[in-house]
Amino acid sequence: MAGKVYLVGAGPGDPELLTRKAWRVLQSANVVLHDDLVPQEILRVLPPTAQLVNVGKRCGTKGISQTHINSLMVQLAREGKTVARLKCGDPLLFGRAGEEMDALRLAGIAFEVIPGVTAALGAAASAQISLTDRRHSSRVVFVTAHREGGTGLTSERQVAADTTYVIYMPGHRYAALAAELQAAGIGAEIPCVVISRATTKDETIFRTTVGQLPECPAAASPSLLVVGIVAGVPANVDSRDVEVSSKLDEEILQLALQHPYHDLQGRGGVE
């Protein structure tokens, strides 16, 4: 009997932000094919019976091809296995889920998509930014900087003032992004925030403006950039880097281990 593939959203990093359904599927999976950037905090709470395979592709480094990932999902399902394809954030946003679903359909493999909290929402919550605000922004645009030709914001000039931009995978191209944003009509004075490893113990938040973005220190991956009036720093917020304390993160992880669907001991470590 053929198995089934689940495209599972891991959320932004905090294990407590996994959905109950994602948690249940991960506890019953025979094989978990995970992105390279799925945090260890999540991998640690997977059952020891699950086979973990890192199929991540990192910018600038050689990794497994998308064609190979597609073939691996099909092969494992045909062996009767329950396969969890664990993706950072939400599978349907900048996650190549469309290509994977096409491959599974073509092979006649049953699959299901389990949504996750996308990085933009996790990061905005951590930085206490409302992506929409009736006083400032009625429109949100998600784009990726990880594409040839930049973010594609050149046509935004007429609507930039009423928009919050969330730029996924900005890398360290801050000078190029600042130039592209200003060319799109987004002023140098507009606030922006670089959020790295949102919702994890290694989270950092750096607040600046579009004009000063080139001076931003390099942020660890995964990171994203929020640009718009709503990203302005309230008077009572410290604009320096903010880190979630390791003590608080450990408390959160212990709560995760008590999750109602987590009836296994989980992994003590992951290779």
* Beta-strand content estimate: 15-25%
- Can you count the helices? 7
Average per-residue pLDDT, rounded, comes to 86
* Poorly predicted ranges: 238-249, 259-265
Alpha-carbon distance between the two ends: 30 Å
| Corresponding CATH architecture of the largest domain | 3-Layer(aba) Sandwich
Q: Any idea what the CATH superfamily of the largest domain is called?
A: Tetrapyrrole methylase, N-terminal domain
How many separate structural domains? 2
Q: Could you outline the blueprint of secondary structure elements for this entry?
A:
Layout: E1 4-9, H1 20-28, E2 31-34, H2 40-43, E3 51-54, H3 66-78, E4 82-87, H4 97-107, E5 110-114, H5 119-126, E6 139-144, E7 163-168, H6 174-183, E8 191-196, E9 204-209, E10 223-227, H7 246-257
Parallel strand pairs: 1-4, 1-5, 2-3, 2-4, 6-7
Antiparallel strand pairs: 7-10, 8-9, 8-10
Helix pairs in contact: 3-4
Describe the structure in your own words.
- The chain folds into 2 domains: 114 residues, Tetrapyrrole methylase, N-terminal domain (Cobalt-precorrin-4 Transmethylase, domain 1, 3-Layer(aba) Sandwich), CATH 3.40.1010.10; 112 residues, 2-Layer Sandwich (Methyltransferase, Cobalt-precorrin-4 Transmethylase, Domain 2).
- Helix content is 25%, strand content 20%.
- It has 7 helices and 10 strands.
- The strands form 2 sheets. Strands 3-2-4-1-5 form a 5-stranded parallel β-sheet, sandwiched between helices. A 5-stranded mixed β-sheet has the order 6-7-10-8-9, with helices on one face.
- Helix 3 crosses helix 4.
- The protein is elongated and about 60 Å long.
- The two termini are 30 Å apart.
